[in-house]
Input
Amino acid sequence: MTYDANNIFAKILRGEIPCHKVYEDEDVIVFMDVMPQSTGHALVVPKASSRNLLDADTAVLAKLLPLVQKVASAAKVAFSADGISIMQFNEPAGGQTVFHLHIHVIPRFDGVSLKPHTGKMEESAVLASHAEKLKAALSAVV
Ligand code: 5GP
Output
């Protein structure tokens, strides 16, 4: 399997389509998932091109997890979450639907089940408000 530069996250990275951005540095962008499985569901996306974890450069991965930890900590505070689920899918059989490496950071609440993966599109105003909350909490830890 090869990397297809026309995937939706590559288009977001090139600024061709919009996103509700939370954070960006030279290596990584963080934005809200448009079909959140829970309040505050965010995606941590390395800028380097790889389909998923299986073909990613180890140097990219080494920088990625510390930021995932920070986003998870910030999300717990921003959304008063009881826990955080980290998810990452590889290839269609593994549940992957967008073929550019990304890590899901999903706030969890006691007794609340996750909504379906790639279920319902959230309203833009809600995503914008969640992005601002997460951005504010993240700025305290990065
Ligand atoms: P995967 O199934 O590849 O692990 O996750 C892809 C995620 O991207 C899904 O959770 C889906 O809701 C989200 N997604 C799909 N298209 C878009 C988009 O255009 N913008 C954003 N922000 N998220 C998207």
Summary: The radius of gyration is 14 Å. The helical segments are 8-13, 58-78, 124-139. The first strand starts at residue 21 and ends at 24. The beta strands are 21-24, 28-32, 42-46, 83-87, 103-108.
